[in-house]
Target: Putative copper export protein
Amino acid sequence: MNATMLLLHLLGATVWTGGHLVLAVTILPRVLKGKDVAALHWFEQGYERIGMPALLVQVVTGLWLAWQKLPSLALWFSAEGGPVAQLIQAKLALLGLTALVAAHARFRVIPRLSPATLPLMGWHILAVTGLSVLFVVAGLSFRVRWGL
Model:
């Protein structure tokens, strides 16, 4: 069961992080250069069908894996949980930041998206992409123990 959950978690991370890297590195520069709001909407509509379920899989499996590593919510948020608790805290903080940036984009930026607001959307995309890479680093830290 642990291996299955880890596999699902990694597949979710692959889709989420990979999709945002593709968006940030290949789509976003063209969108910004051409001020092409439609191209950004096109990518987002297609990506959301797989990206949002992947994020949900990551959250569910991540919480399950965290519980397997440290089966006490109290220890997740205390110094007594040691390095594992610190990594769980880091991943939860990254999740919170991702949710804040995504909510701001969804409710404030995207409804008013225009060629003039594309740079602001670009910053949101770069922020979520950076956070997703940090998620991967934090997750890898459970295995390689280099810490954050």
Observations:
- The CA atoms of residues 20 and 129 lie 5 Å apart.
- Residues 2-144 form one domain.
- The chain has a mean pLDDT of 95.
